[in-house]
Amino acid sequence: MDKLLIEGGAVLRGEVAISGAKNAALPILCAALLSAEPLELSNVPELNDIATMLRLLEEMGVKIQRDGHRVTLDASQISNPVASYERVKTMRASILVLGPLVARCGEARVSLPGGCAIGARPVDQHIKGLQAMGAEVTVEQGYVHAKANRLKGARICTDMVTVTGTENLMLAACLAAGETIIENAAREPEIVDLANCLVAMGARISGAGTDTIRIQGVERLHGAQHRVMPDRIETGTYLCAAAVTGGTVRLTDTSVAYLDAVVDKLLDAGCEITMERDAIRLQAPARLKAVSLRTAPYPAFPTDMQAQFMAMNCVADGVATIRETIFENRFMHVNELLRLGANIQIEGNNAVVRGVERLQGATVMATDLRASASLIVAGLVAQGETLIDRIYHLDRGYEKIEDKLHALGARVRRVR
Q1: pLDDT over threshold 80, residue 330
Q2: What is the pTM of this model?
Q3: Does 30 participate in catalysis according to the annotation?
Q4: Percentage of residues in the chain with pLDDT exceeding 70?
Q5: What is the pLDDT of residue 328?
Q6: 1, 83, 104, 255: which has the fewest Cβ within 10 Å?
């Protein structure tokens, strides 16, 4: 199993390009199931989760051509509308095939999903929405089995804000008869990117990015070309890495348009940030100031950036309180940061972080995708060597992370 070895103390400087967003690409790949014509995508990141989704789609009969960051999907023949447990168990986003399969094929059988163990993420809102649209849904032997001659438009109000739930119901509603209204919808930029792709395919969608999305169903969708948006979480992670080392970096092929809450906290920490049209430049202070934060659905501070900011606060001047409101198990990185010498106390879903002068390198274990990123941020500033075990989590969400960090001057290498 691969590990990542970091020799701390290097100041990050230079320029690096940000990849396409994993969390946007995954539902957009599933959109190909809605059309018998090819969907051509660019800026698709090369990640394990993307490879898993492509294999899943191929098993259903989708023909796929891939050339680096370009992917063409031809779903003219869907021969097997089933997502098996073996494929789905490693990636929760596999549930996103459920809505488009029912809408296009009239039937789907999808295993209940797996993924990171950061907390309960039930699929009941997906099922509730499809049932409101007329689908007959049962859960048997670990599989969701949904059937419908043709879905019908409906008014759906989700019990909670759910990103994948909103995306699944959007995908399903595109081919439903009549109008579907999704209330209490998630507002994430990745949902807007999915809507933009679907509109390019001929869907009629309004309100994406707000809490009420309206979709007028159409008979069929056609092929299209679409470029996946930049990864805002990867962007934020590299900004944190530069900030914690006292560095100066310029990130290209990205935008601050989706990062207001993150940028505000970096400014509070004492960083100088210059915003360009397709790039961001950060200059860190001699020592960061501690910043408190509370995670919440977009446009508030993203839960996917909580762990990286906790790592920054470990060596910042002052005391910060971090409140996690999205996932109940998202402080699993705390014990690993403590091994590096951090001063953190957990009180329910609050973490109190008291900045220390320095961290010390040690062997640590990644517990989920964003926890892995937090250990890299901490390892970059720790004295000595930090060895991060179980980095397969990183390969799910960060493209060529050791190459990009090395380009910025980090002393990091993969140990196989």
Answers
A1: no
A2: 0.95
A3: no
A4: 97
A5: 67
A6: 1
The arithmetic mean of pLDDT across residues 104-117, rounded, is 78
Write the single-letter amino acid at 384: G
- 180-196 pLDDT, tens digit per residue, is 999 999 999 999 999 99
Given 30, 105, 116, 197, the catalytic residue: 116
Confidence check: pLDDT of 120 > 80:
no
Per-residue pLDDT at 119 exceeds 70: no
- List, in order, residues 6 or more apart from 71 with CB less than 8 Å away: 29, 40, 41, 44, 54, 64, 65
